[in-house]
Structure formats: structure tokens, C-alpha cells
Design a protein that fits this description.
The protein has 232 residues and is an alpha/beta fold. The protein folds into 2 domains: 110 residues, Nucleotide-binding domain of ferredoxin-NADP reductase (FNR) module (Rossmann fold), CATH 3.40.50.80; 84 residues, Roll (Ubiquitin-like (UB roll)). Strands 3-2-1-4-5 form a 5-stranded parallel sheet, with helices on both faces. Strands 7-6-12-8-10 form a 5-stranded mixed sheet, covered by helices on one side. The longest helix is centred in the first third of the chain and has 13 residues. It starts with 22 loop residues before the first strand and ends with a strand. It binds FE2/S2 (inorganic) cluster (FES). The site of FE2/S2 (inorganic) cluster has 14 residues, from loops.
């Protein structure tokens, strides 16, 4: 609509690099290579130790191959091509874990699971295993129940019906919360958690972040009729 005002925000990074890592292993599958390229440039700029593994089905379908051959860090890149029989072996790539190593992965659901399972098996702690989804993975059979949002700052209770999200309930009550994907992927609707047991249904928060935050467009009270106190 002509004249419509469009609201924008500063960029939000939900896949940040830990620049204190002693070694960083980047593992991208398919188009999941894109954040890895930005991370590789940054790691090179700060003189960090890193490797980048790029998994693709075939060279013909792979993006960025030319791009990855050009930077000064191209010798740190290994391309794994399924139809050439050079599929990545996460168990081998992630072996020999030492304190301070971090692994980052982005790609299809099964690919990321294989990477993270191998990382966990080799001793990478939770805070050293990082992932970013770019589409919603298969979901468990969630049951929706009504619950109550308690707004700590404004001392209000907002009922959330079984067939609506917390963001819907807030909007219905005139409380604006920024929403983008509504799928629990982008993190835009992240809110501080004051108290309450949560069924976290997002794909963006780390376990550590979930102790103090929740994603309002997807997550709900863990129990029917539960009270979730949030920092609003
Ligand atoms: S709007 Fe994207 S995670 Fe909620």
C-alpha cells in the first residue's frame, strides 16, 4: 500500500560465533553453507584456527564452489560430494575433541543430527555444539492446552486458548509483540522468562537460553492450565 509505514529492526544474530574457541569446525550441508562462509571469513580475519566441511549431493547442484576456491582460507575447505563417494564422516571429522573446540552446523535436519550426535559422542559440551535451522524440521505430536501468561511488568494475566499461540493471545489483548516467521525459527518473538515450566517448541534457543527465555510464537506451558510468567 502506498504510504504504508514499514518497521525494521537492527539485525539479530541467533547463530553467533564464539570467537574464543581454540578450534572451530564448520559443517554446512547444501544451502546451509551460507552462514558458514560468513563465519569462515570472520575466523580468518581474527586469525582463528578453523576448518570448513561442505557436504553436497553433487557438484552440479552445489552453490558457492567457485566462491570457496577464492579466499585465502580456501585450503581449510573440504568439499564432500555424495555422488562421488566422498560423503562427510562426522565421527571422523569431530574426533579428538579438546577443551575449547566448537562445532557449527547448518543444513538438512538429518545432516545436522548426524553432526551433533557425533559431536556429543566425542565430548563436545552443549555450549560448544551450535546449529541453525533454515526450515521447520519434523515436529513431535504436540498437544495444545490452554494456559495463562502472567505479565510480570504490567501485572496482568492473559489467558491463552488451546487453539491460539501466546503471540496471538497477546495481540488479541492489544499487546504488540514483534513476530516474523511464527515457526519458532527466527527468534524475533523471544521474550524473557520469569517463572513457569515451559514446553519449548522452538528451533533457535540454546538450552542455556531456554533457562531464561522463551519463544512466544510456539512455546507453551508444560502443563495444562500452567502459568508462564514473562518479562512484559
Ligand atoms: S516469530 Fe520467528 S521465532 Fe517467533
Amino acid at each position: 500500500t502506498e504510504g504504508r509505514r514499514v518497521f525494521i529492526s537492527k539485525p539479530i544474530n541467533h547463530f553467533p560465533l564464539d570467537e574464543t574457541a581454540t578450534r572451530t569446525i564448520l559443517m554446512g550441508g547444501g544451502i546451509g553453507i551460507t552462514p558458514m562462509i560468513a563465519m569462515a571469513h570472520r575466523l580468518d580475519a581474527i586469525g582463528a584456527d578453523f576448518v570448513l566441511h561442505y557436504s553436497v549431493k553433487s557438484r552440479a547442484l552445489a552453490g558457492y564452489l567457485d566462491h570457496l576456491a577464492q579466499p585465502p582460507w580456501s585450503d581449510r575447505v573440504t568439499v564432500h560430494v555424495s555422488d562421488e563417494g566422498t560423503r562427510a564422516d562426522p565421527a571422523r571429522i569431530l574426533s579428538g575433541y579438546r577443551d575449547g573446540w566448537h562445532v557449527y552446523t547448518c543444513g538438512p535436519d538429518r545432516f545436522m543430527k548426524a553432526v551433533l550426535d557425533a559431536a556429543e559422542k566425542h565430548g563436545f559440551p552443549d555450549q560448544a555444539r551450535h546449529l541453525e535451522y533454515f526450515s521447520v524440521p519434523d515436529l513431535p505430536e504436540y498437544q495444545n492446552h490452554p494456559f495463562t501468561l502472567r505479565l510480570a511488568r504490567s501485572d496482568r494475566d492473559i489467558p491463552v486458548a488451546a487453539d491460539e499461540s501466546a503471540t496471538d493471545a497477546l495481540a488479541r489483548n492489544g499487546i504488540a509483540v514483534d513476530v516474523k516467521c511464527s515457526d519458532g525459527l527466527c527468534g524475533v518473538c523471544k521474550c524473557g522468562l520469569v517463572s513457569g515450566a515451559i514446553e519449548h517448541r522452538d528451533f533457535v534457543l540454546s538450552n542455556a537460553q531456554r533457562a531464561t527465555s522463551l519463544i512466544l510464537c510456539q512455546s507453551r506451558a508444560a502443563r495444562p492450565g500452567g502459568i508462564v510468567e514473562i518479562d512484559l
